[in-house]
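Quick bug: BatD protein output formatted oddly.
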Amino acid sequence: MKLKTHISILLLLISSIAFSQVKFEAKVSKTKLGVNERLQVNFEMNQDGDNFSPPDFTGFTVVGGPSQSVSNSWINGKRTYSKTYSYFLAPKSQGSFTIAQAEISIDGNIYKTLPINIEVTAAIDKPTDPNDPNYIASENVHLVAEISNSNPYLNEAVTVVYKFYYSSEVNVTNLSDVDTPKYNDFWSHDIPVTEYNRQRGTYEGEDYNYVIYRKAVLYPQKTGKLEIEPLTIDVTVQVPTNRRDIFGSRLMTRANKRISAGNRTINVKPLPEIGKPVDFTGAVGDFSFKVTTSKTALDASESLQATVEVKGKGNLKLFNLPKMSLPSSLEVYEPEHSENVQTNLSGMQGSISDSYTLVPQYKGKYPIPSISFSYFDLRTETYKRLNSEEIIIDVENGPLSNQVANNTSGISNNGKQSVVLNNDQFAFIKTKTNFIPINTTHFFKTTGFWGALLLPFLAIPLAIVIRKTKAARNADAFGNKIRKADKLARKYLSHAKKALGQKEAFYIALEKALHNYLKAKLHIETADLSKDKIETLLAERQVEVEIIKDFKSLLESCELARYTPMDIITMQEDYDKAAKTISLIDKQAR
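Here's what came back:
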């Protein structure tokens, strides 16, 4: 009896020991975390099981998992087994939450983990989980926008260089734009970055690698505080883990990060009003100015080129050149504008010019008076004025004209005396006559009499034809629509002329006139008025390329006027250009 009792106790002890060797437990990476951190939950067991059932993770969002890992090894004849189910959780809000029990079946028995309490606090500045790949990536990659000048003058160049910093602990495999800045209220020019050259630098006092990701030059078009929108990019980063390969090297895992350079604000100063020249058109920088001619001696009816040129460094594309003042005896054609401007990190550099074609008609000497150009010098922060030299054009052969003599300074009258008039200069003209009528016939029964009598009767068929034509025209809805648009174009063009000097009203009226003219000429609707569509249709109508460019430049002027100060001289030029361009399109369009 005692033997049976001892055997039963021994079997019970063996089974309880075997039973106690099964382990199934939940482990978390932390029990207190910020709402912007991630929580890792591992469910570990030392024997293989079936029908694993995780908790519902109330209060959390599953952002990763389940991932399963198995370890099975023999050491000194002893077997070690481990199986783990892993989840990555993101808190939905602040508060206290419970990771409920998970269940699994091992050898026909149900095992449950113990519940774990988790406290979620407000967001912290830097997640502190050293094993989180996203945290490691966020700590080792940064995007910075470096501004050359945060307090520039209006139309002074500002450079923005976006630098991507990354530490030596990570490898970057991909960079791509997500949201590029629009640079509202700036004239902007992106400088292409052809390749990413690694350089060494410091970020917040620590050594980093960096590459220049993007470069841009901005010219502010408004004063006051202006926002530079942030650049946002996606980065694929290879970050190290705690695992190692068979050679002892650390294994890497991939993390995708979206980083932003953040908003930047600059305070744009207005140009000083004290000392501002009346003819100042917005030039800001450091410039030289000259007026040259292709020749100074020629014959009448020959042509020459007179060029007004500004050269230097500054906002070369954002102001107007001064106009030449020329004698009326010279035939002058519209100037041809040309630009030779390069834009780099220091801003625009190069030259712009207006080239006039001049054709003298008469023999004589013609002066091209000195003209001036004013600009704001950033180095001295003062306005400067440059004057050109006076040029004398000598027309050696050709017909004479009194007008040439009147317009030519410093030419003698060759010794001839002026004619002196007296009071009897018109004495040869007779003031009394003895005229008598020479036509004594009567109008009655003449050809004119019968014509006037029959004319009303002959006009009746003509009136009928005119009436039918008018009725057919009124029935032509499409034609009436075109004529109405043409009428509106003339109307708005006249409105634009009346609004000269009022920038917004003028360019709104001018833009409407251009659009309504195209609707009438090309038979298109407002929805089709895109620049590419307009260019295609005008080209199909055999309009010259230069005329199409002029028309597009007018539309661009209307758009640019919203952000750029315009003077009345520019408005008058745009009005004249619009009238001329519409006339040329009307002649050339087939």
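Actually, after a second look the formatting is fine. Residues 34 and 122 are 5 Å apart (CA to CA). Closing.
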